[in-house]
Amino acid sequence: MSDFDKNCARKSHSRQTTLLGWKRGADVVGTDESKKSKRDSSTSDRLSIESGSRNSLWENKSLPNGPMILLRNTVGGIKASERQSTKSEFSSLPDWNDNVTFQIFGKECRMRRRVCQYSSGGNVSYSYSGLKNISAPNFPGVVYRIKCQVEDLMMNHLLDAAANHSNSMHMHVSPEFMDEIKAVKESRDAPIGSRREIFNYCLLNHYRNGEEYMSYHTDDESSLHANFPIASVSFGSTRNFDIRPRNKDEAGKKSRLDRIPLGDGDLLVMFPPMQEYYEHGIPVEKRVVGDRINLTFRRVRKVK
Ligand SMILES: O=C(O)CCC(=O)C(=O)O
Ligand SMILES: [Fe+2]
Predict the structure, then answer these.
(1) Which of 171, 173, 197, 238 lies 20 to 30 Å (CA to CA) from residue 229?
(2) For ligand 1, atom 2: residue with the closest CA
(3) pLDDT tens for residues 48-70?
(4) How far is the CA of 53 from the centre of ligand 2 (A)?
């Protein structure tokens, strides 16, 4: 990666901040409705989920104010060969864009990975990384299949933990989201047109080698639903997922707090309010052999 690219990556992040009017820091609370509802869900009235006993396949990766759960080697099939063929299907989707450019202080920067995005019925509009009005066609079959699997895995885990009255303080899920997944679960037997869904948007990232990366950022656009998590799925080579605080420390630094290796078939779920407190990114790692495709499923509020 050249210094110019590094610079672009860094600046793109600060530019995003300006463009979307984000405020950073644990002590700063936004003024829009989504942020208000986050604030109103106090820790005490959230359902606590324990990753123990029957739910032991899920690891608890939470940081303070950053609830996260992780399930290894499962999405896309238990067998590596099944996941490999799913990854090939992703790779040959027709909508990849490997030349995404954006302007930073008058300079043109190119995104160092290829990306594409899909949404429910092609009706969802979402802007990120300073890019606006990006078209997001209807979910192709392979993305829809993985979306359903991710929703089921997550829903069953959370409902199971709730039914077992798990009471660890590690993991907090808002009552609003628990109500939502109960409704989604109940609607699974309904005719296809009237089924509810958790996620209505998917962003795919293809890192073709260890030099392709994603700089530190938060996924806290106001168009994202405040109570819903972001579910991130990985296929292919293992890449590190780095986490650091949004706020600088006394020395003016933001030091890395955690590094989670994300491998083939892994599912990482980030719950609110994680995006208010932490940034995450995929660093350059030249020694990585092979490519990785990542899917992040989101719930966007604005539907066209
Ligand atoms: O590739 C990854 O695991 C990170 C993806 C991500 O953070 C994003 O799409 O916002
Ligand atoms: Fe992200």
Answers:
(1) 238
(2) 294
(3) 554 444 445 899 999 999 999 99
(4) 30
What is the H or E stretch that residue 148 is in? Answer: helix 141-163
> Residue 106: is it exposed, middle or buried by C-beta count within 10 angstroms (0-12/13-18/19+)?
exposed
Regarding an ipTM greater than 0.95, the answer is yes
Residue ranges lining ligand 1, Cβ < 6 Å: 203, 205, 214, 219, 232, 241, 262, 280, 282, 294, 296
Residue 19 has pLDDT above 80, yes or no: no
Beta-bridge mates of residue 269? 69, 231
- The identity of residue 154, as a single letter, is M
3-state secondary structure of 63: strand
Phi first, then psi: give them for residue 213, nearest 5 degrees: -155, 175
- The protein residue with its alpha carbon nearest to ligand 1, atom 3, reads 294
Per-residue model confidence (pLDDT) at position 226? 92
Cα 297 from Cα 118, distance rounded (Å): 10
Kindly tell me if the per-residue pLDDT of 8 is higher than 60: no
Give this prediction's pTM. 0.82
How many of the other CB atoms lie within 10 Å of CB of 162? 16
Closest CA to 264 of 115, 89, 76: 76
* b/e burial code for range 19-53 (CB count within 10 A of at least 16 → b): ebebebeeeeebeeebbeebeebeeeebbbbbbee
Query: Do residues 96 and 106 lie in contact, with contact meaning Cβ atoms separated by under 8 Å?
Result: no
Residues 162, 50: Cα–Cα separation, whole Å: 9
Q: Which of 41-45, 65-69, 233-237, 267-271 has the lowest mean pLDDT?
A: 41-45
Q: Pocket of ligand 1, candidates 70, 266, 294: which has the most ligand atoms within 8 Å of its Cβ, to mutate?
A: 294
CA of 194 to the centre of ligand 1 (A): 30
